[in-house]
Design a protein that fits this description.
Blueprint: H1 9-15, E1 21-25, H2 31-40, E2 44-48, H3 52-55, E3 64-65, H4 69-73, E4 78-81, H5 86-96, E5 105-108, H6 114-126, E6 130-133, E7 136-137, H7 140-145, E8 148-153, H8 159-169, E9 170-177, H9 184-213, H10 217-224, H11 232-243, H12 252-268, H13 274-291
Parallel strand pairs: 1-2, 1-4, 2-3, 4-5, 5-6, 8-9
Antiparallel strand pairs: 7-8
Length: 310
């Protein structure tokens, strides 16, 4: 019986019969949970974070924490990048990519937009890696519980390695194409995020207006209860505002970055994103008031010239 070439899909399938070696670059709000779930699924996980102290707790979950991104990716079957934006990913992978093995799968999961994704795909091609455009949809809680939705576009040859990785971090994987270089999955992520950010800002403004007008928020929720205007995400973000607990599932700074990506992508496509542009300004104001590291529901504070509870 002949042995399939080392870079064939069937060979990759054989490789996935054993635990994979997976490097996770970026262990912030999302990456830490992803690394833990990969380790829990039996994979050998190496984690790198720019501030290494933030990654150290992962060692208690069987993750090997390393100080150098090249060390993390050397010999890995798969690499996940989960950093703040395109420039950060490019900076880290410029250092790490030369250590990638030929045929390694690079799942680029940071929200960077389709333009930056194409540049990163070119870097992967230069170093012989199989590039998968793989942004994720979900919050910190979803990342920690392995319930993310993975939006993926990449070559069929990458799937035997990519799919066990995605199964460990998510509840479902939506493959939207076989070409990861065009940013098809990243474009879908921006469409989804445009809706998420719009709902977040609308919730924040409604709660701010209720505060300003002296309206009891309970009356608002009673009025929409069970109707077409009611939705779970409204309750999630309003709960953060009403409790004053802005522990981040996604930060104001991250939302500001994504809003700018959405506006820029719309401009390139000839689409005016008026709400996204206004939302970006709200996130900028909230960050300037000292709420950048808080949950994006803290865009609530952008509605006031001073602390509304003073």
């Amino acid at each position: 019986m002949s042995t399939p070439p080392a870079d064939s899909p069937s060979a990759a399938s054989s490789a996935t019969a054993r635990p994979l070696t997976v490097a996770v670059l970026g262990t912030g709000i999302m990456g830490a949970g992803m690394a833990r779930n990969l380790a829990a699924a039996g994979h050998a996980v190496r984690a790198w974070n720019r501030t290494i102290a933030r990654a150290q707790p992962l060692a208690d979950d069987g993750v090997r924490v390393v100080a150098d991104p090249a060390e993390a990716v050397r010999g890995a079957d798969a690499v996940i990048t989960m950093l703040l934006g395109g420039p950060s990913v490019l900076d880290v992978m410029d250092t790490a990519a030369p250590a990638l093995g030929h045929g390694a799968v690079w799942a680029q999961s940071s929200t960077v937009g389709p333009a930056a994704q194409a540049e990163l795909a070119a870097l992967a091609h230069e170093h012989g890696a199989r590039f998968v455009d793989a942004p994720v949809l979900g919050t910190k809680a979803a990342a920690e519980s392995g319930q993310l939705t993975v939006l993926a576009a990449g070559p069929a040859a990458a799937r035997p390695v990519a799919e066990p990785v995605f199964d460990a971090i998510g509840r479902t994987t939506l493959w939207v194409g076989e070409d990861g270089t065009q940013g098809v999955a990243s474009s879908l992520k921006l469409v989804l995020n445009s809706w998420v950010l719009a709902v977040t800002n609308a919730t924040a403004e409604a709660m701010a207006l209720a505060k300003g007008l002296g309206v009891d928020p309970e009356r608002f929720f009673e009025a929409i209860d069970g109707g077409p205007l009611d939705l779970p995400y409204l309750h999630t973000k309003s709960a953060a505002i009403r409790s004053g607990d802005f522990t981040p599932s996604f930060t104001v700074e991250g939302a500001w970055k994504d809003a700018r990506l959405i506006v820029a992508a719309g401009e390139r496509a000839g689409v005016r994103m008026d709400l996204a542009a206004a939302g970006a300004e709200r996130f900028r104001r909230a960050a300037s008031l000292g709420h950048g590291d808080e949950d994006m529901a803290a865009s609530y504070f952008a509605s006031f010239d001073r602390d509304p509870d003073e």
